[in-house]
Amino acid sequence: MLEIRGIDKSYKAQPLLQSISFLVRTGETICLLGPSGSGKSTLLRMIAGLESPDGGQILWDGNDLVSTPPHLRDFGLVFQDYALFPHLDVFDNVAFGLKMKNWKNDDVKTRLAEVLELVNLHGFDRRKVTDLSGGEQQRVALARALAPRPRLLMFDEPLGALDRALREDLLNELRGILHRTQIPAIYVTHDQDEAFTIADRVLLLHDRQIVQEGTPADVWSEPNSVWAAQFLGLGNVIEGKIVGGGWSIETEAGVFSVKCRHPHQAGDKVNLLARPFETSNETNQIRGHVVDVVFQQDRFKVTLDNGLYFYLKDEPKIGQMLEINVKLECLQ
């Protein structure tokens, strides 16, 4: 089991990461999700041993690895740019780490056949990596990381260079491979769709810290801050104020009744999340004239004159007055 305990890191006297702590359990895939510049890749590089933390511990089964060189950590790392050797064929690229560990030739051949089958590259042994597509090259990089049977796998934006359709296919395959092999993994991305597809647990990284963690379903259904809701694109954030008794909240979009788990009193300012999908069983209703309509997959994204947007099954007309029943949640 990997335990990150109180990791700190600064660049040019500016803190980048502060008091980062989390666990990665056997067979678990966690995703570090956050915007560019939030320190995700730097954290991964410290775990790999390519950079050193300013403070804190990187523990494997209780043993601190901070002073352990990368090649002795027995971790696999897959990059966005593949980092393959262009002068070597598929076989020699994947076998590189095994030969560095002095595996016998017969054992190398047996293991290579296993991992190439696992990543759907059977028969590609002697192909030049420069002749392969982007998706095939990333499969080679994955096979190379898997070949030495690492005790941890790490992925740094591995699908960022691929087109959407190929990215989705590889992501689903990678998820299956991780579940079958039960190798614990850390996956770094800024894309929430990737994170929610592959992760058993998501860690949101923002403002130098982990600001929320949980299963993809928990993080999606219960964002704990305005920043989390906006970063994940969960819907409209509406500023309001507690008025009167109960949970009556006054906003520029109307006065709403919202149950909230946070302690509030009259006059407190709050932020509401208005989920963008119409729900017929909700009593809160938002009204506005349609100013823009865009077809997206099986629905229409409709923007109202109050700046709020919603996804509707039926296409409205520009200028039409709409009354939309929506789910409202208090973000604090």
Helix and strand layout, with pairings?
Layout: E1 2-11, E2 14-24, E3 29-33, H1 40-48, E4 55-60, E5 63-64, E6 75-79, H2 90-100, H3 105-118, H4 134-146, E7 152-156, H5 164-181, E8 185-189, H6 192-198, E9 201-206, E10 209-214, H7 216-221, H8 226-231, E11 236-243, E12 248-251, E13 254-257, E14 269-274, E15 285-296, E16 299-304, E17 309-312, E18 321-325, E19 328-330
Overall description:
- The protein is of the alpha+beta class and 332 residues long.
- It has helices at 40-48, 90-100, 105-118, 134-146, 164-181, 192-198, 216-221, 226-231; strands at 2-11, 14-24, 29-33, 55-60, 63-64, 75-79, 152-156, 185-189, 201-206, 209-214, 236-243, 248-251, 254-257, 269-274, 285-296, 299-304, 309-312, 321-325, 328-330.
- Helix 5 (164-181) links the parallel strand 7 and strand 8 (185-189).
- It folds into two domains: 2-225, Rossmann fold, CATH 3.40.50.300; 235-330, no CATH class.
- It has a six-stranded mixed sheet with strand order 6-7-8-3-9-10, sandwiched between helices. Strands 13-12-11-14-19 form a five-stranded antiparallel sheet. A four-stranded antiparallel sheet has the order 2-1-4-5, covered by helices on one side.
- Helix 3 (105-118) packs across helix 4.
- It has eight helices and 19 strands.
**Overall average residue pLDDT:** 91
- CATH top level assignment of the largest domain: Alpha Beta
Shape category: elongated
The low-confidence runs, each spanning 5 or more residues with pLDDT under 50, are none
Give the name of the CATH superfamily of the largest domain: P-loop containing nucleotide triphosphate hydrolases
**CATH fold naming of the largest domain:** Rossmann fold
* Strand and helix order: EEEHEEEHHHEHEHEEHHEEEEEEEEE
Gyration radius, in Å: 24 Å
Biggest sheet record: 6 strands, mixed
Protein structure class: alpha+beta
Task: Please give the alpha-carbon distance between the first and last residues.
Answer: 35 Å
Give the beta-strand count.
19
Strand order of the largest sheet: 6-7-8-3-9-10
Strand content: 25-35%
Q: Could you estimate the helical fraction of the residues in percent?
A: 25-40%
- Taken together, the total number of domains comes to 2
